[in-house]
Specification:
About 35% of the residues lie in helices and about 30% in strands. The N and C termini lie close together (about 10 Å). With about 130 residues, the protein is of the alpha+beta class. It is built from four helices and six strands.
């Protein structure tokens, strides 16, 4: 049975203009307990508020499948170095520590020659609906 997939509006990063190759990252966090979902959502919104300051970030969508206890982000980066800076970014690292052990995290990435929002979301969505 498929559960509803919710998506936030697109959050712009500082590198949102321009052409060229991009790196797409998709994170999928499955929580052990549904009661942790509101806290994860609030933490994700706090990270999204800082998104415009992240060098190399084109933008991102937050997503959730509440009935499946799953949530995450589809983020578009200029390159792998930008993604690695985000992973090490203190607010991100703090949230990851706070929720460690409360579920399972998986992620995937792919490269694209150019960013097409509709194509990127469709590809990510297909993987999130399994």
């Amino acid at each position: 049975m498929l559960t509803k997939l919710l998506r936030s509006s697109w959050t712009l990063g500082p590198d949102h203009g321009g052409d060229g190759p991009v790196l797409v990252s998709v994170t999928d966090f499955t929580l052990a307990r549904v009661r942790d979902l509101p806290g994860v959502y609030r933490a994700a919104r706090r990270l999204a508020a800082g998104w415009p300051e992240l060098d190399g970030a084109l933008g991102m969508w937050l997503w959730a499948r509440p009935a499946a206890r799953r949530c995450g982000a589809v983020a578009v980066w200029r390159d792998e170095a930008a993604l690695h800076r985000f992973v090490a970014w203190p607010p991100h690292a703090e949230i990851m520590r706070a929720y460690r052990g409360r579920g399972t995290l998986s992620s995937t990435t792919w490269h694209a020659d150019v960013f097409h929002p509709a194509r990127t979301w469709a590809r990510a969505r297909a993987g999130l609906l399994v």
